[in-house]
Amino acid sequence: MFEMDTIAALATPLSPSGIGIIRISGPEAVINTDKIFCGKVALSDAKTHTIHYGKIYDGDDVVDEVLVSVMRGPHSYTGEDVTEINCHGGVLVMKKILSLVYRLGIRPAEPGEFTKRAFLNGRLDLSQAASVMDVIEADSEAALKNSIKQLKGAFSDELKGIRDQILHETAYIEAALDDPEHYDLGIYGQTLKDKIVPVIAKLEKLSQSYKEGSLLHNGIRTAIVGRPNVGKSSLLNFLSRQERAIVSNIPGTTRDTLEESVSLGEITLHLIDTAGIRNTDDTIEKIGVDRAFASIDQADLILFLLDSSRPLSEDDKKLYSEIEEKQVVLLCNKSDLEFHSDIEEFCKNVHCPVVYFSTKTGDGKDELVDVITKMFFRGELAGAEDFYVSSERDKLELDSAVHSLQYVCQSIDDGMSEDFYTVDLMDAYSALGRILGEAVDEDLVNRIFADFCMGK
Ligand code: GDP
Question: What pLDDT, on a 0 to 100 scale, did the predictor assign at position 131?
Fold first, then answer.
């Protein structure tokens, strides 16, 4: 346990709501909460993991009727003594109780400081601690499932297993070098290589999952393109209206490209509705078209819309020829209207998946989600045994471990002496350890937790 002061913060948003929670953690948490709380039992006498009804007082004045949870370390979130004051969720009342708490000499917590303490006190490793924020921010089923797996230690356990194996082999080599009479390193090189090759494959698979993990957690950047009037804005509105509870406006968008994040069950699309693309001499419209092309360049996925009720235009063909090398889904919109033969003919000759869609009736939505899932996640999203690495830092450390283990194999192939192996084995061991938070410097830890929200 680290010697810490006592900290407090509001764990719920500072906006009117049913309840507000003020979280206090540290050696003085219980004693200090007791100074402003009056209930049947003094909190200092309360057993751990109990909840108590009472009132918060400012001198003789009652500030609020509350429930206070008492969780004593080491079996609490932070590993320290923790109290949580559940008060009414009015802005003024929450502020008043918080200022009473600060007046007792308790320090305001920094963002992520509760979770940082959980890490420093060994309640969570760094990978698990980082996943706490992913759980909070997850906006699709699959991202949430993946974050929970990481929080429960699926990724950490895998890494710990591999580190144990590396340590075991290193210890064997060291022992053999020290005591050649009792340990035989005769064919050890080949035995070691047979063990390392599957480990490399495992680590490479995890590293390669980063691309998908990042799309899962950040959303697939999806540009909606097509000539004017094919239904681009209708598509954006349709998809966001379907899931309006989890749609968020992205600030800083321009008049001509609108952006919204839309969660469609397992996946999140970060949609960009571009200006209609066509040949034009109008200066303003040209700027919109240029921006549309910039969005196409940055997109992971392009939803290319055609109006299936109208003849194919030169603009449609030209646009398709400019994007066909990218990840494209052709959406034949307005499938509720009569089909134009041009469109059917065109669809037969394209290389990308085709979905018949109607923003009026919603037809094609499930198929669109299936097609995208297959394109980006090989259709195997969130299988029980699959885990997607979502942090770039973790991916780089995995790559570094893979390189070190490949050097070990190279040394074995080149017939180098065994002490060469141990250096690279220990490099791989350290790289995997850094993912778990072992021997990482304070700046890195501070940077990771600085991205957290207040009160977590
Ligand atoms: P944009 O210029 O590509 O953004 O096209 P809009 O979304 O503004 O749509 C152009 C017109 O097509 C509007 O009148 C829409 O109501 C209509 N529209 C869009 N999607 C559909 C559809 O699926 N079926 C039908 N029948 N009309 C649609």
Answer: 84
**Strands 354-356 and 328-333, sheet pairing:** parallel
Nearest to 24 by CA among 96, 81, 87: 81
State which of 274, 359, 368 you would mutate to test the pocket of ligand 1, scoring each by most atoms of that ligand within 8 A of its C-beta.
Answer: 359
Q: How many beta carbons lie within 10 A of that of residue 152, not counting itself?
A: 12
Q: What is the CATH number of the domain that holds 78?
A: 3.30.1360.120
**Residue 354, domain CATH:** 3.40.50.300
Q: What share of the chain has pLDDT > 90, as a percent?
A: 48
pTM: 0.72
Asked if residue 369 and residue 266 are part of one domain, the reply reads: yes
pLDDT in tens, 305-332: 999 999 999 888 988 998 888 899 999 9
* DSSP state string for 192-236: HHHHHHHHHHHHHHHHHHHHHHHHHHH-EEEEEE-STTSSHHHHH
Ligand 1 atom with the shortest distance to the CA of 228:
2
Q: How far is the CA of 411 from the centre of ligand 1 (A)?
A: 64
Mean pLDDT of 270-282: 70
Index of the ligand 1 atom closest to the CA of residue 337: 26
- Residue 132 and residue 116 share a domain: no
CA of 215 to the centre of ligand 1 (A): 29
Backbone angles phi, psi at 43, to 5 degrees: -60, -30
d(CA 284, ligand 1 centre) in Å: 22
Question: What CA–CA distance (Å, rounded) separates 56 from 64?
Answer: 5
Task: Report residues whose beta carbon is within 6 angstroms of any ligand 1 atom.
Answer: 226, 228-234, 276, 333-334, 336-337, 358-360
Our measurement of the distance from residue 150's CA atom to the centroid of its chain's CA atoms, rounded to an integer in Å, reads 10
Question: Is 215 among the domain residues?
Answer: no
Question: Do the Cβ atoms of 449 and 5 come closer than 8 Å?
Answer: no
Measure 140 CA to ligand 1 centroid, in angstroms: 28
Contact criterion met (CB below 8 Å) for 452 and 133: yes
Domain carrying residue 29: 7-124
Do 243 and 349 share a domain, yes or no?
A: yes
